[in-house]
Design brief:
This protein is an alpha+beta fold and 103 residues long. The protein has a single domain (19-93), classed as RRM (RNA recognition motif) domain (Alpha-Beta Plaits, 2-Layer Sandwich). It contains two helices and six strands, in the order E-H-E-H-E-E-E-E. The protein has helices at 26-32, 47-58, and strands spanning 19-22, 36-41, 64-70, 74-77, 80-83, 87-93. Strand 4 (74-77) and strand 5 (80-83) form a beta hairpin.
């Protein structure tokens, strides 16, 4: 007697990462001295989502999160108007003296 293999549909959760990448700029490097780190985040991300994602990834609890919506830049290419992508940045503040490794 052959037994039929039952397959269950496992819900594979694809968790979108809210934190895309850390921004390595001169301004971000100066902020790291004061335990402030700059990240490129998803456009629809909220401050609480960013804080949870940061805590899960870096094992540090942020004190405060500030976000900045960067305006799309317009440009002409071959006589047609085009726009760049929307970007959202997040400043993550940690306790004084706390550091994380970005690399």
């Amino acid at each position: 007697m052959a037994t039929k293999k039952t397959t269950t549909k496992e819900a594979i959760k694809v968790v979108p990462t809210v934190l895309r990448k850390p921004l390595i700029t001169e301004k971000a490097a100066n902020g790291a001295q004061f335990s402030v780190y700059l990240f490129d985040v998803e456009v629809g991300a909220t401050k609480s989502e960013i804080a949870k994602a940061f805590k899960a990834q870096y094992k540090q609890t942020p004190i405060k999160v500030n976000t900045v919506n960067v305006i799309r830049k317009s440009h002409f290419r071959r006589g047609r108007l085009g726009f760049g992508a929307k970007v959202k940045k997040a400043y993550v503040f940690l306790k004084k003296g706390t550091t994380i490794s970005i690399a």
